[in-house]
Write a structure and sequence with these properties.
This protein has about 280 residues and is an all-alpha fold. It is built from 12 helices and no strands.
Length: about 280
């Protein structure tokens, strides 16, 4: 039987893969555990290919594991190990001042496409970046490219974990890493995250933020009164998660993406709809 062809950027299902990976990287709380069968169905509804196969391998494990084992696995994987941190700039910048600059650059780019992280949420958190990419694929793909070294290092750290299948699926949708990224990753594998250095000279293996901004929309506060407004984002959709099939995605429309305080509202079912915040702090 021929091996399925991998997904490539622009193919149908790329945004659904990003949405599913973002969901599955969340803490296995009651709503997520209750949605295990729907997560498996959503993975099975993706276009055939390597990304779907990796996701199905994860959802098979996730559906069969006891709840207690899921929580223990998650805490041991993401809360007790630095090499599997979901905050991607740690892998390429360590706890250095350059990491602070990288975080500021990511936050600026998120604001430029109309999104602001919640209080206390770092802008390099992989599930957050995948949320953005799933609803703003063009801008989100640029963000994922910017943190690609961190994605590759996290993937290596998860090589022996069931969560590694999620990073394998993600990397399939991003395509091969370029030569520069591969060289950075190879050096990080040998040397590890950089330590703080005296002075301001950049490390050759850990470049700082890209000096030229990508062509993101300007912030609303910077627009002229008669200028165009930011586009309305559609609710984030994944097949079989209370949404129509991939072939009949809904038309864009307003809707909250993530509740500002999940503890104040009951969650009747798991629908991936994180809240998107405008650059002015409002919601849209």
């Amino acid at each position: 039987m021929p091996r399925p062809e991998p997904a490539t950027p622009g193919q149908p299902g790329r945004c659904e893969v990003w949405a599913l990976v973002s969901l599955c990287l969340g803490y296995p709380d009651d709503p997520l555990v209750a949605a295990r069968s729907r997560l498996a169905a959503a993975a099975g509804a993706l276009p055939a290919g390597q990304a779907r196969r990796h996701l199905e391998q994860f959802t098979d494990w996730f559906a069969a594991a006891p709840r207690s084992a899921l929580t223990v696995q998650y805490v041991r994987t993401f809360d007790m190990r630095r090499d599997t941190s979901l905050n991607l700039t740690y892998h390429s910048h360590g706890e250095t001042r350059r990491r602070g600059l990288a975080l500021l650059e990511l936050k600026r780019r998120l604001r430029a496409c109309g999104m602001v992280p919640e209080d206390g949420e770092l802008p390099d958190h992989l599930p957050l970046l995948l949320e953005v990419a799933a609803v703003e694929p063009e801008h989100g793909a640029d963000l994922l490219r910017l943190v690609r070294p961190g994605i590759e290092m996290l993937r290596r750290g998860l090589a022996e974990s069931p969560y590694g299948h999620l990073l394998d699926a993600l990397v399939v949708t991003l395509g091969p890493a370029d030569t520069t990224t591969s060289a950075v990753v190879d050096e990080l594998v040998v040397l590890g995250p950089p330590a703080e250095e005296v002075g301001t000279e950049p490390s050759p293996s850990c470049p700082g933020p890209v000096p030229e901004p990508l062509p993101f929309p300007r912030l609303r506060s910077e627009r002229q009164a008669d200028g165009p407004s930011l586009p309305a984002l559609p609710p984030l959709g994944v097949a079989a998660l209370d949404l129509p099939p991939l072939a009949a995605l809904p038309a864009p429309g307003p809707g909250p993406l993530r509740s500002p305080d999940p503890a104040d509202q009951p969650v009747p079912s798991l629908v991936f709809s994180p809240e998107v915040r405008s650059a002015q702090g409002g919601t849209r």
